[in-house]
Write a structure and sequence with these properties.
The structure holds two protein chains of two kinds.
Chain A lengths: L5 E8 L7 H4 L19 H6 L16 E3 L12 H9 L3 E4 L4 H10 L3 E3 L2 H13 L4 E5 L4 E4 L4 E3 L4 H9 L5 H6 L1 H9 L8
Parallel strand pairs in A: 1-2, 2-3, 3-4
Antiparallel strand pairs in A: 1-5, 5-6, 6-7
Chain B lengths: L5 H9 E4 L5 E4 L2 E4 L5 H10 L9 E4 L16 H17 L3 E2 L9 H7 L8 E4 L13 E4 L2 H10 L1 E4 L3 E8 L8 H12 L7 E6 L1 H5 L2 H9 L8 E3 L4 H7 L9 H13 L9 E6 L6 E3 L7 E3 L12 H14 L14 E4 L1 H4 L2 H11 L9 E4 L4 H9 L2 H8 L2 E2 L20 E4 L15 E4 L2 H10 L11
Parallel strand pairs in B: 3-4, 3-6, 4-5, 6-7, 9-10, 9-12, 10-11, 15-16, 15-18, 16-17, 18-19
Antiparallel strand pairs in B: 1-2, 2-8, 13-14
The chains are: A alpha/beta, B alpha/beta.
């Protein structure tokens, strides 16, 4: 499993609180049996309504890899289709004021770090990117800092368990979970309800 | 940290061990899967050459994409047909029980597990659907998960989880006539906010919840996720046991006694410690309705749409977005707002008691001209029971359409969708932009009784006007 310690690239701002999973990927695009192609439909309805003005449509942000969002991003559904769509569009990490819990967990499981920063810091980062879309940003999970090519420095936070998972390459828990199958069976044998049905 | 709560006890009972990340490996007692979030998980299993060690602890059904009118196979929607076939094939390959359409046991995953007695107190439950929190009504700890985690549960029957804090939300007293479980949870979310519950499990306690039926408790727990909480639960009691007893998968005979003893022990202790406590009075809760684009943007049916000045600074930007999207004016009463579509159903309010309550108000009345109104039972079983009671006739005589079981317009992955900027009175759980199938469609969340009132008047109306 690969370690994820640093992510560098250009940023893309997306402003607004409470951006829910239905906006990230409208439900009609969930009619699929693979995640392939979801990247094309990220924020489909918002993009259509903003007629090219949505940051995902703006020429200057094409190829960006760090998405900067506001509060409670990814609230709503547990659908992993939402972070998958964002990731398949090209985003490798998110910086925000706060994230909805299941969305955050889905991102960890996919190897996409989400870090948080103070509201004012996030807004100033969004402004900095808008003023200079060519700015290169480096998110360092070791120092929990974002460095900009223009000298910008920003402290960010991430729950320690998740941070360690990325640093040590343990973010994909599946491998560890299956190796404990004897302990799992042992735990199961102590649960009375497993023998009731 | 909390101590002695049901959450703490269930967590401890299901803890397999600590992972190198510091997370807990948690055993999942019941895994529910459906067609939308599972196919990619099975593909991941195959890629890694993994098996499913506890197939009998998983139950599959199909709910999101099933048409509610013509359910003949193949479905006319080829993508939907592909999804149901993928689930059929996956269940067959891995030996997972599957409640398919026409089996008599199909329905919304959060409706069928309780009605078959699979959902029980003290369990951990996971499902690739955020409304898994519904099962907390039984005193289970039930998490909505993403597809990678669906893979994890299939492959190991466990999840890597961080322990949550526990907030006790106490509501005491008697709800006023015309006020339902849906209003209680909309009120709680209005007061605590859509992100108020992040990091928490919600324990709903107090005399109001104690007096509720199991189906009412499910409505409350169902929407915990809309308040940002990962799960919500109510301690099991005699009401819980009476509901479970006799159902297909309920413990029987001597095992029943053993079960009740275990369930009583799993309840939160009288001196349990909580990370936070919030208290509400039932009498203060009005019939509540949303006016905006998040479930937290709710008001009493008597109130006016809030003006920006009346809102905290932090809520104003999303309110501005809501006024514009919803085409509603701040300061104006919500009552009298014209509606186009009225929908009764979903995992929040598609149960038999919801249909009974709605039918009481539909009885002898007529849906207003030009209104599309329809009722979608939450399961094949709910449909059968409702028909046995004649509820279908009450609805159809009033001008509602009577459909087959499924998630329907709640998220509109099937043909039931709003058109253009139509506005719906909906008993579902999310009023997000575009949620009900049209990118400009608008949703007003309310109780099923209030949906009937809207259907009959053609506008948002106060159901209490029909109550003496």
């Amino acid at each position: 499993m690969s370690q994820i310690q640093q992510i560098s690239g250009r940023g893309i701002p997306l402003t607004g609180d409470d951006i829910d999973t239905d906006r990230i990927i409208p439900a009609r695009f969930l009619r699929c049996v693979t995640f392939d192609g979801l990247g094309d439909h990220a924020f489909e309805d918002d993009r259509h309504q903003m007629a090219g003005k949505h940051s995902f449509d703006q020429e200057v942000y094409q190829g960006a890899s760090l998405l900067v969002v506001n509060a409670n991003f990814g609230c709503g559904s547990s659908r992993e289709h939402a972070p998958q769509a964002i990731n398949r569009w090209g985003i490798q990490a998110l910086v925000g004021e706060s994230f909805a819990e299941i969305f955050f967990g889905n991102c960890v499981a996919m190897g996409v770090p989400c870090v948080t920063a103070d509201s004012e810091d996030v807004k100033s980062l969004q402004r900095a990117i808008a003023n200079n879309p060519q700015l290169t940003l480096t998110l360092d999970l070791g120092t929990l800092q974002i460095q900009g090519s223009d000298g910008l420095t920003l402290s960010v936070s991430m729950p320690e368990g998740a941070r360690q998972s990325f640093m040590e390459g343990l973010w994909d828990s599946c491998g560890q979970l299956v190796t404990q199958i004897d302990a799992v069976r042992d735990r199961a044998s102590q649960l009375p309800y497993l023998s009731w049905t | 940290m909390s101590k002695g709560t049901l959450f703490d006890k269930v967590w401890q009972t299901h803890r397999v061990g600590a992972l190198p990340s510091g997370q807990t490996q948690l055993f999942i007692g019941l895994h529910l899967i459906h067609e939308v979030t599972s196919p990619q998980a099975f593909a991941m299993l195959r890629e890694r050459g993994l098996t499913v060690p506890f197939p009998e602890r998983t139950l599959a059904t199909v709910d999101h994409i099933v048409p509610t009118e013509n359910q003949a196979r193949p479905f006319s929607d080829v993508l939907a047909e592909e999804m149901i076939q993928a689930l059929e094939d996956n269940c067959k390959q891995y030996g997972i029980p599957f409640n398919n359409v026409g089996s008599g046991r199909q329905g919304i995953v959060h409706v069928i597990a309780p009605e078959q007695g699979l959902t029980q107190p003290g369990m951990t439950i996971a499902c690739g659907d955020s409304h898994t929190s519904t099962h907390g009504a039984f005193g289970a700890i039930a998490f909505g998960i993403g597809t990678s985690q669906v893979r994890d549960v299939l492959a190991s029957q466990t999840l890597a989880m961080n322990k949550l804090k526990v907030r006790r939300i106490e509501v005491n007293g008697q709800l006023r006539p015309g006020v339902y479980a849906k209003d209680v949870i909309l009120h709680i979310i209005r007061k605590l906010g859509v992100k108020g519950g992040v990091g928490y499990a919600y324990e709903y306690a107090g005399t109001t919840f104690e007096q509720m039926t199991m189906e009412e408790r499910m409505t409350v727990c169902n929407m915990s996720i809309e308040g940002g909480a990962r799960c919500g639960y109510i301690n099991p009691d005699q009401t819980t046991y009476d509901y479970i007893q006799g159902r297909e998968f309920a413990p029987k005979g001597e095992q029943w006694e053993e079960a009740v003893t275990w369930w009583n022990n799993i309840r939160s202790d009288a001196d349990a410690e909580y990370d936070d406590v919030v208290v509400f009075q039932a009498e203060d809760i009005p019939p509540t309705i949303t006016w905006g684009i998040t479930p937290g943007q709710g008001i009493g049916v008597d109130e006016t749409i809030p003006t920006p000045e009346s809102l905290p600074q932090s809520d104003r930007a999303i309110a501005e977005e809501a006024y514009q999207y919803m085409q509603l004016s701040p300061g104006k009463p919500i009552q009298g707002t014209k509606v186009d579509v009225c929908f009764i159903g979903s995992c929040t309010n598609g149960r038999l008691s919801d249909l009974r309550e709605a039918a009481k108000f539909a009885q002898g009345r007529k849906v207003a001209n030009g209104i599309k109104a329809f009722v979608v039972p939450g399961s094949e079983e709910v449909k059968r029971q409702a028909e046995a009671e004649g509820l279908d006739k009450v609805f159809t005589e009033a001008g509602f359409e009577w459909r087959n079981a499924g998630c329907s317009m709640c998220l509109a992955m099937n043909p039931d969708k709003l058109q253009g900027d139509q506005i719906s009175a909906s008993s579902s759980n999310r009023n997000f932009k575009g949620r009900q199938g049209s990118s400009s469609g608008r949703t007003l969340l309310m109780s099923p009784a209030m949906v009937v009132a809207a259907a009959i008047h053609g506008t948002v109306a106060d159901v209490r006007n029909w109550i003496d």
